[in-house]
């Protein structure tokens, strides 16, 4: 079937080149291709499948809804499915965490949520500039791309990307320098050339950017600085929210409360497109219809999203993530030692990465793993980081199995490297 | 249940203010709210539901796919569901029309498709400016918003929107002036101040802009001018493609072949988010991953989209649209006469509008209709146009019923107007 | 001496390529090169020398000032020389015309005056967009270049030029269409995509753009439209002010009062750099130092500018311009007839142009004239217009002499053309 | 006479508010107002009068030129006066320093020179972004303003200023951090969000920015980085060139060769507007007329500029600057000690500044000095620096006299401060 894609699909297609199988079905941590071959999934659709593929609780809710001809598409009119989601989100997510946010459902993609967040921050402050960080990734439409660091993606715009200023992310200037010192100087200095910003936008763990983790202290200081200077703090939790780092929100651990939060990817829990912008009530200064879009009321996604919230009834999932995270980190550290490879293991919860000193190694490992039946991606501007993104609900045995494959893949990539060098 | 939305949903919500019901289920041309009240739908989710709500053929295909745990989310990896859609789209849409396009699946919203199209046109030509038309509507993310005419939406950007030049749409300078004369002068004159554009983007029928119809002659001349000047012609068929004007594409009637076409809304046929960019093979100069997004491979939407293509096996649907269009136009004309109201009826296929000389009338009619159980929207920069967008598969009896409600709504709005004036 | 320039001066040098002599001295209407050859001047340094080269009255004032060590440079501190200029400008220019303007002296170039005017208009209105016209020329720094039509000059920016919208100048759409109809539609339509502008900037006669003359009616309507819509009207009188069209200001004839006027070129009367922005008092909302520059207080230029104002004590100069203008126009018309050439004569006062149907002819005539001892330039985006810009104080005999040279140059250019064709 | 200015001159006027006298004549280091009061000049028109007011050698050359009706204005046609300047500039400035540059004469202001330099750097590299430094000052037209740090001036633009990235100047992050480390990281990292720049532009001593001095080591490293990354290095020597720091160019001491150099202010030596862009021959890729302007050939300025070059026949001036600089620095240091004030003295050659810990002190000193007959300005974003900019040719006695006045002014400002506090 691959010839169909090669003949008719645009050259822009990407992941299919790294993982050249035609997938047909999937369940839990496993994907199956049209030839019946099974793959363990350590990628989870770039963080969309935190609860695994086609989880039964969600599937049942979705099928029941479709069966009874629940309304599917309502733009942003009221629907029963949306009402139920909002209600449960209040009960299971916001209230227990003492958070008070208004909910905006923009177009059902992460980039649309970011566009909405940036618009609102600009409107509320009357300012234009937005501060983003080195190696940030926020999306591909022009507003989001302007705050994304990757120069290859930026060049794709075909027009200059303005109204964004990049500051060094935590750790960018070495471990001795708190990069927020520079940010504070620039803010305090009317001659710095940097316009007072409307907002700061960041991922607490930069996923695409190379699994770069902001420390809790750094996040707290950033919250304090932005508060003091009247700058809207936007946490883009699209990839590392919905439990990826342990808590529902990735910023919980630092005990900060952002002004705006963007969510998408794992929000529907079933791979159905859905996005959400959380807005502090006092910032909800939208005029009706000021930001719109067609698919703001995609009810099947609300149905599965509501079912997925049941994972947050108790702390079981969060605890499981913590214990699996330890397992992953320990094992990765050991691999580096055993194979005598220079590298760094970093991450939070079930987003973990290994940055290899040998820049090409991560890609060779990813390739070897795929051949051995494990889907695992690389990250970082030079694909120098092997990124582990298993589902949060993966069984410990499956997790160990995947780590074994990585271990072997690493050995194979090293052997290949030696062979090639010889 | 409305209080949930009023308390917790952002002020940005819009359509729910015009149609304040909480919808629960829907079938064919009918929507039902939580109180069991039924509404005839002449709005179709802004053109998303060309085949009506929850059409059975699509529903069956979707439920079967979910039941067997067909893979849901694959980013842009290959999937069986995508392969089948591509194949059928070739067979039933492109080949019969002699069209040769590569397919790009961007993020599943119209604005994302437009962003992709603009990026590609800029890349291929190495130019930045894009020509758009007065009262155009192409989306809300910054790239698409820059080519959208509505000043309220534009102001929402919070930053200047550049690299777009607006030209007068067909008819904008009165019936005596061919607006393309001006466009040609500007293109030919190196002193005009207007940069040679990468692309021209347009809707053949401007829906949001007020049901403004470009004539076939004008479209042909525009195609000829853009070809001669090496400008990429992008037809944004998001709202009026997928059969809305009769043919699958709205530009078929003018016998032109755009360089790029964007589709979304009714593409999945079931209200599931999906978008598609059609690209002439020689323009498919994307580098892998140059434009990406999470939800490029949302398989349930491919499944329903494939099932929806079966409507295009023969010309039955196209013929039905033509005959219903005549019915609608005739009836609307008659209403104007009978009520002695000044106004213009215009449209193509099953997008029809009445622009009233009395600017507030359309909104009063819409309100009266909703109270009588008909969902119908207004359009145009001052909401001066009543826009009819029934499903293509609506029964003739239902269509007549809806037109009756409009007729009464018109009477009521006029009576109210008189009462208020008195 | 030419080798010095060819070796050491940048390739950007331009006019020296059309008029390759090394000039040493000049007086009245005549320039003399280092070889002693004399040239009659119908170009006047692009409108800088309205009163001829080194006019004695100004020369004496200047030398006396230098002799007594009058202060030369004061930034924008107060100086006696500036005070005297301001006083006389009030008495001889503003008061007699019933005009009330505040005076701003920006950096001493036209482009700096335009930059200041645009900044102020944007500040006062809080809007960003500025409307300019096809074939406008306002300067080379980025702000001025953005409102300049010439695409070759614009490309020189190396960055996109934004916040400017071009409208068709008077006559651009043929003699049947009032181009302001289109401008008014766009202003009235919130869906036009054209942001409500801060200002409209224009030359009443476009000099570089090809001697395009706006009619008095068109100017009056433009003044009325801008007033009604709260748009700042800026007349750029840098090239055609200071008497070039007859009155001191080019807009006097249309009896309009712009909100802001820019002057430079002939303002000092002696070729010394000086620029002036006239601002309606209610628009003078500058904060001290908000726009600055080093050479705002160049006293020698104030001294000659004050002396030059004496030309405006009575109406003698204005009358002389009118009678010379008639002479020039009559003669040019006759030449076209006698040589049987298709072309248009147009202009106001002593800026007159001939647009030839044969696009290359103007340049050939200019070249032939220079060889015969007359300096005369071309204009228009394709250099298709021969532009006559003699000094206002030229003697009638000299004027006739120059016209004779043009007559012969025309004959020669036609003969050359025929020879080349044969 | 002050009422004339107050009534008729725009509110934008600035320096006249700090130094409210009406100046009439000037000679050497002294200015005289209309009341006959004399002022010692430690400001020199912001660096325009390096050779003092109306120096006799230049005056004589200028008067002789005017007397014999030397041509004044030639646009960029060849003139004898320009030819002579170019020749002497080669002989006395470029050749002795082993420098090879092409000369471009843009419009006669610093901002115009900067606009030309930026355009050329963008053209040559095909890139758009320009790196500038915190507290940089390069001019007021939109291109130059975009690379200027001062937020008040930037806000004056009324439009966003783009295509500029600010980096920390030498010393900005404290004495322990080499700010070029950050710049290098950003350049090396394709995910940094900072586009690879066309150029870096800087002043080696930031004058307006607060007399911030870049060290020779830092400059050398910057030259090395820009060379390695193919970035055009532009030194803006408008304020600190022409001998201000000792050598003719301020970058001589660091033994670096910039790709482009801008000069203006003291270039004509007599306060006549003139500007010059020096371009490495291989970068002189201008197309004829690509950047133009009216006053590119202002011959009186060429005449005085040529006469001024005689100061550079030998090293006398440079040596005098060095010894006067020592005198100034020693004396300023002593003042701080004697008055027991916290502050820093910094500068190079005859641009010296004192940054006081008490932010308002510099302005109070400047005011007290003016009352005592000394013109001296403040600098820095909060006017926290007292800036000494005496002429290079000032007599040692005059220099001492001025320093005495500062000493007393300091005492008075301190006394006033105490009184106010009491």
TrEMBL record, chains A, B, C, D:
NCBIfam families, sorted: dat, ectoine_ectB, PRK09264.1
Record pathway: Amine and polyamine biosynthesis; ectoine biosynthesis; L-ectoine from L-aspartate 4-semialdehyde: step 1/3
Molecular-function GO terms, alphabetical: diaminobutyrate-2-oxoglutarate transaminase activity; diaminobutyrate-pyruvate transaminase activity; pyridoxal phosphate binding
Lineage per the UniProt record: Bacteria, Pseudomonadati, Pseudomonadota, Betaproteobacteria, Burkholderiales
Protein name in UniProt: Diaminobutyrate--2-oxoglutarate transaminase
Entry EC no(s): 2.6.1.76
Record family assignment: Belongs to the class-III pyridoxal-phosphate-dependent aminotransferase family.
Gene3D superfamilies registered for this protein in UniProt: Aspartate Aminotransferase, domain 1, Type I PLP-dependent aspartate aminotransferase-like (Major domain)
Cofactor(s) needed for function: pyridoxal 5'-phosphate
Alphabetized UniProt keyword annotations: Aminotransferase, Pyridoxal phosphate, Transferase
SUPFAM superfamilies reported in the protein's UniProt record: PLP-dependent transferases
Class of this enzyme: transferase
InterPro entries listed in its UniProt record: Aminotrans_3, Aminotrans_3_PPA_site, Dat, Ectoine_EctB, PyrdxlP-dep_Trfase, PyrdxlP-dep_Trfase_major, PyrdxlP-dep_Trfase_small
GO terms classed as biological process: ectoine biosynthetic process
Key word Ribosomal protein present: no
One Pfam family, short name: Aminotran_3
């Amino acid at each position: 079937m691959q010839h169909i894609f090669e003949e008719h699909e645009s050259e822009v297609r990407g992941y299919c080149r790294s993982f050249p199988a035609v997938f047909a079905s999937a369940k839990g941590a496993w994907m199956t291709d049209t030839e019946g071959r099974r793959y363990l999934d350590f990628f989870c659709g770039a963080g969309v499948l935190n609860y695994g593929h086609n989880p039964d609780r969600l599937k049942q809710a979705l099928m029941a809804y479709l069966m009874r001809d629940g309304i599917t598409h309502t733009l942003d009119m009221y629907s029963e499915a949306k009402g139920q989601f909002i209600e449960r989100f209040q009960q299971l997510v916001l209230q227990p965490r003492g958070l008070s946010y208004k909910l905006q459902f923009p177009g059902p993609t992460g980039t649309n949520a970011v566009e909405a967040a940036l618009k609102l921050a600009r409107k509320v402050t009357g300012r234009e500039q937005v501060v983003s960080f080195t190696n940030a990734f926020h999306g591909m439409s022009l507003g989001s791309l302007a705050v994304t660091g990757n120069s290859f993606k930026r060049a794709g715009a075909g027009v200059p990307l303005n109204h964004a200023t990049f500051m060094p992310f935590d750790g960018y200037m070495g471990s001795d320098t708190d990069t927020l010192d520079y940010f504070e100087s620039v803010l305090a200095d009317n001659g710095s050339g940097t316009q007072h910003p409307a907002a700061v936008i960041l991922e607490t763990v930069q996923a695409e950017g190379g699994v770069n983790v902001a420390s809790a202290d750094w996040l707290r200081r950033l919250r304090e600085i932005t508060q003091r200077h009247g700058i809207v703090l936007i946490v883009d939790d699209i990839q590392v929210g919905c439990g990826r780092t342990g808590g529902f929100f990735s910023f919980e651990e630092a005990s900060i409360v952002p002004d705006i939060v963007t969510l998408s990817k794992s929000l529907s829990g079933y791979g159905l497109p859905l996005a959400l912008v959380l807005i502090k009530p006092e910032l909800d200064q939208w005029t009706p219809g000021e930001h719109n879009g067609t698919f703001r009321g995609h009810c099947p996604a609300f149905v599965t999203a509501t079912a997925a919230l049941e994972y947050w009834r108790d702390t079981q999932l969060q605890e499981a993530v913590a214990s699996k995270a330890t397992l992953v980190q320990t094992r990765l550290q050991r691999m580096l030692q055993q194979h005598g490879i220079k590298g760094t293991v970093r991450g939070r919860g079930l987003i973990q990465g290994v940055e290899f000193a040998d820049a090409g190694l991560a890609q060779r490992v990813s390739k070897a793993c795929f051949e051995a039946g494990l889907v695992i991606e690389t990250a970082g501007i030079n694909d120098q980081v092997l990124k582990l993104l298993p589902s949060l609900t993966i069984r410990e045995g499956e997790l160990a199995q995947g780590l074994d494959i990585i271990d072997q893949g690493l050995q194979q990539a090293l052997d290949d490297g030696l062979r090639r060098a010889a």
